[in-house]
Specification:
The protein has helices spanning 3-11, 27-31, 50-62, 69-82, 93-103, 124-128, 147-152, 173-182, 235-245, 266-276, 279-297, 324-333, 361-366, 381-396, 399-410; strands at 86-90, 111-115, 132-136, 158-161, 186-190, 198-199, 202-203, 210-214, 228-232, 249-251, 254-255, 310-311, 317-320, 370-373. It is of the alpha/beta class. The longest helix has 19 residues, at 279-297. The two termini are 36 Å apart.
Amino acid sequence: MTAASATKVDNAIFEDRHEQRPSGDTSKAQNGSSRPPLMKVPLSDIYVDAGAIDAVSRVLASKRFILGDETSKFEREFADKIGTKHAIAVSSGTAAIYLSLLSRKLGKGDEVLVPSFSFIASASPIVDVGAKPIFVDVDRDTLTIDPYDLKEKITERTKAILPVHLFGHPAYMDEITEIAEKHSLEIIEDCAQAHGAMMGSRNVGTFGIAACFSFYPSKNMTVYGDGGMVTTDDQETADKVRMLRNHGRVEKYVHQMLGYNFRLGEIAAALGRYQLAKLDKFNESRRKAARHYDEKLGETVVTPMERLGFSHVYHMYVIRTPQRDGLKQFLSSRGIETSIHYPVPIHLQPPFKNHVPKGLHVTEEHCEYVLSLPMFPSITADQLEYVTTQIRRYFESPASEIVARASASAVQ
């Protein structure tokens, strides 16, 4: 984010650039003669090569499909990569959060502080264990949980904080850790979008009593389907999550507690190992793409901020503009796929209609402005240049020309 774009955020809100467009001759645009050729650019593209196919074949040849060597090796390798003593593979990122909450005995009467600006799975497991999510606003710069609002929402019933490292940027873990220690609260990190993100030399996933990762296909690393991981340094937490994911047992037909079938399959684990080995390369490719976007778009829209000492891994590259809906429609007409993360905050979703959150002004405001641009490790320089050229074209052209181009594309 440039200094200019940071100022746009702080001064809330944004310039209406369409109002300032100069008039001009739009005849060429209207008849389509000046339009450059379309290029299809997806929002995300999953990396598949012979190595991934070999990983699947290896498991098929072994004829071991549940909790075998691939899962054990994936867990050890992931724990080593993140820097924790334990990693427990589970069936999804949602399952990881749910089992982490259960392992810490959070339940009825307890409150868990969580941002509303996130995917619903950051909060729904809190309800599922019987606890109550208390929604916290987000910081304007990073859109991660705001430590100042966090402090204001602590009560005698607060038992835990669930910070989300949103879009790949770490939350303010130094401040959050200080608050948690002062009030004897536990931290369970939501790292679903932040594999490999760091504060200084420390990975996210190492700050709390537990941390939760997702391997959904669009994530920084995937198992080519659903999958998740819990990381922890706490032996008791690790043991309990292992039992809970596998029907509450430590032996085949001896069940220490009631549990669930939240296991990760061997094929998924083998693919996870394959992707984990490429994670650093994937993240560097994402960071390189983000630098291109920053350079080309920094004076046009509000670009993502990477705070000093933080390492952003850009699960999503999310810009902000009051012209979000028009820009999205225009980019679609030019073959560019975008998405909105997130158009409706969690506290305004129907399942949470009985919750009465307070002071979520930044959350509600920015749901109107965010737009995710194409971001994936294999995105090419030509694709990046095409996307940024089209965005600048949208803001630099007279409004009538934009309407003409979008309308013409819609009927082709």
